[in-house]
Amino acid sequence: MSGVHNLCKLDYPIYCCSPFESKSVMVGGGGGALGPKTGVRNAVELLELDQRRNEVIANPTMSLGLGKACAWNMDTHRSRQLVAFGRDGECRVYHIKRTPLKAGNQNKNGLTQRKNVPKDSKEARHVEGLIGGVDNFYAQEQAILQTDTKNFQKGVKFSPNGQRIACAGSDGTISVWDLASQQAPIWKWKNVENDEIQCIDWSPDSKWLCSAFRDGTAFLHDAQNGKLCTELHTLFLISQGTDAYRFRSVKFIPGSNPNEFGIVSAHEPRRMTKPPTPCLVAGWKVKPKDDMYRLAEPVVVRELAQKVSSMTVSDDGKLIGLGCSDGSVDVFSSCGMELVLRKENVHDATITACCFLPSEKERTPAMFTVSYDNTVRLVPVIRDASYPISLIIYIVFFIICCILYCL
C-alpha cells in the first residue's frame, strides 16, 4: 500500500464521502437502527487534513449525530457550504459555517474545543444533533425533505449553483427540490418498473440529470421537468451489440466550459460465468441534437480487473476514480480513458465511496476512499512510471541490433 495515506480509523463503518473545503472531506455512516444497541454510533463528520512531515492524517473537526439512522449517501456544495445526506427515507440539508475563533480558549492546534459536549459518554454517542467538534464550526439545519416512500434515499446531488437538489429513492422515484421553497418537489419522475435507483448526477450546464437503476437501465432526463430524453442502456446495447452488461454507475464529466461535457459509466455482467466476464468502464461523447434532446455515444470502452463498487470524477473533469469490491483503486484519464494508476489493497473491504480532493494547480491530485473497515484513506494520483513489457523488449532488441551492426 505504498504511497497511500491512512488518514484515520473511525468507530463506525463509513458509507459515503464528499469533498468540502480545500483540505477537508465530509464522511458519513454508522450502525443504523441497531447502532444504539450495538454501540456503533451514526454520524456525519468533517475531517480536516493535517500534514506531519511525510505523512498525512485527518482530524475530525465536527461531528453531527444522527440518532438511530445512519447516512447512506451524501453530496456537498463547496461555495454555499452545504452538505446533504440520506437518512432513511429523508434528505437532510445542513449549512456548515466557520465562525471566528474565540480568543483565549484554543488548544495547541489553534482549535477551540467544545466544553459542554461529553462526546465519549455512552449517551452522547447516540444523540441526534451537533455532538462534538470545535467551536469555530456551526451546523444549521436547512431542510428535511421526504424523498422516498419505502426505505432509503439512494442518491443525492446538488445542482451546479446549489439552489436545487436532486434525490433518488429506493422506490424508483427521482425528485428535484428548490431549497428556497421546500413544501413540495418541483417535479417527480417514477420508474414504471418500481426498481431502486443506484445513482444520480447533474450535468455541468444544469440542464440534464443522469440516473442508473438496479435493473441495469440508465437514462438522461430534462432537469427542468423530469422528461425522459435518452435511454443510455439502449444506446450502449446498440454500440456493443450485446445485452450482457448492466449499468452500475453513471456520472457526467465536466469539460472546459459548462456547455461541454461527457459521460462516464461503469458496467458489470448480468450473469456470473466461468471464466468471469470482465467489468467495463465507458467514456461517452455527448452532443446536442436539438434543444430538448442530447444524443450520447460510448466512444471508449475499457475492461476492468475487478467489480466497481463506487465511482467519482474530479472537479476539473480530468480524472475518473473507481473504487472496487476487493478494496483496490483504479484511476483513469478522461481523455482516452487511459489507466493512470492502479493501487491494490487500499482497503481490507469493499470501497463504499470515493471522491477527489478539490483540484489545485500546484497540488498533486489525490482521491479519498472510505470503506466498511471504518478507515479513510488518501491515494495520491501519480502516474505509474513502469513501462510495458513490449516496449522493454523493443528497446533491448534495438540495442542488440546496434551492437551487432557495430561489430
Automatic annotation (TrEMBL):
WD repeats lie at residues 156-181. Residues 186-232 form the Anaphase-promoting complex subunit 4-like WD40 domain. The keyword Repeat applies. Pfam families: ANAPC4_WD40, WD40. One of its GO terms (molecular function) is guanyl-nucleotide exchange factor activity. The chain crosses the membrane at residues 385-406. It is a single-pass membrane protein. PROSITE patterns: WD_REPEATS_2. Keywords: Endoplasmic reticulum, ER-Golgi transport, Membrane, Protein transport, Repeat, Transmembrane, Transmembrane helix, Transport, WD repeat. One of its GO terms (biological process) is endoplasmic reticulum to Golgi vesicle-mediated transport. The keyword Iron does not apply. Its main location: endoplasmic reticulum. One of its GO terms (cellular component) is endoplasmic reticulum membrane. SMART domains: WD40 (SM00320). It is found in: Endoplasmic reticulum membrane. Coiled coil: none annotated. This is Anaphase-promoting complex subunit 4-like WD40 domain-containing protein. It comes from Oikopleura dioica.
